[in-house]
Every structure is written in C-alpha cells, then in structure tokens.
Amino acid sequence: MLRPSILIALVVLITVGVAPENPGAAGTDPLTFINNLGQQLVAVSSSASPDRKLAGFRELFLQDFDVPGVGRFVLGRFWWVFTPSEQQEFLGLFENFVVLTYSERLLQYADGGGRLRVIGSRPEPDGVTVSSEVTREAGSGARHSPMPHAIRVDWRLSARDGLYKISDVVIEGLSMAANGRSQLERLVERNGGRA
Known about the structure:
Blueprint: H1 4-13, H2 30-45, H3 50-64, H4 67-75, H5 84-111, E1 115-124, E2 127-135, E3 150-160, E4 163-171, E5 174-175, H6 176-190
Antiparallel strand pairs: 1-2, 2-3, 3-4, 4-5
C-alpha cells in the first residue's frame, strides 16, 4: 500500500497533463509545455460548475496525454489477447477511470494554491523528460490528507504526430504507467487470468 502522501501526490499529478489551448508542437520548448500545465489547470478549476470543471479536465487530459499509448502499456501483454473492439472498450474505460477518479482531487489541489516549477530536462530516445517540483501553499487543504511541501515530478514527453504528449508521470520515483500495469496484473491474477 502506498503511503498516503505519495498516493495523494499520485492522485493529484497523474493527470495533471494539461497544456496550452494549442498543444505544444514537438519543435517547441518542452519546458514551456510543462510550465503551462499549472496555468491551464487553474483556468479549468475556476469554472463555477462541477460539471464544467469535469468536462474541461477531460478535454485537457485527452488533449495532452497519450491515452492510447499509456492504456496499451498498462494493459501490457493482455493488449494482444483482446479483440480490437475490446481494446477500444478498455481505452474508453481507462479514460473514464482516470478522469473521474482523479479530477476532483486535482482540481481541489489547483484551488488550494498548487504550483508547478520546472527545474530541468534531459533528452530520451523517444522524446524528453522534464523534471519539476510541485509545491502547495502551507496550510492549504488542511481538511484533506497533507501533502509534502515539494514533490519531485518527472514528465515523460513523447513526440506524436508533431505534438508533445505525456506518456508517463514519475512522482518521487514512482511511474504512473508502471504502477497501473502492476495493479492490472494483480487484478488479472486474482481473477484467474481474466481481466
């Protein structure tokens, strides 16, 4: 079981893949792409209606995350067992799970004064990893589980169709994609080899 502070950080940041209204072109600065995450999240969280917040969050998530790529990775070897129709059904369920599970926490975090600061980047074979620190104002969200003051978050960006897409978020060394795959494999094991 994850420690509560890491779990909350994961919940808050797993889907923080929000970028400018026009997603960053692969030729633009990846640091700028990530810096815009917090700004767009604050814009979505300022909507008065919970339904509009959820819709805005879903749009940003779909725009900036490589949902099919992450979903295929999470499903792992089981991807090839599924029919194309089952694969699409899984991706739809995966999208809904992430959006519905994490949007409320993420938007509470943005409302509570969360800040993202880029601290560096490094090239990767298929893109770039941008390192950042996410901080929260002292005392904000006191009714909720406390978060560490600063959390290290690495954003793995891949160039897809000339645009950056977030392919993984690594929080304090914990990979979102690898953790999702591990949880799914345990679920399949408990169900006698069936997802």
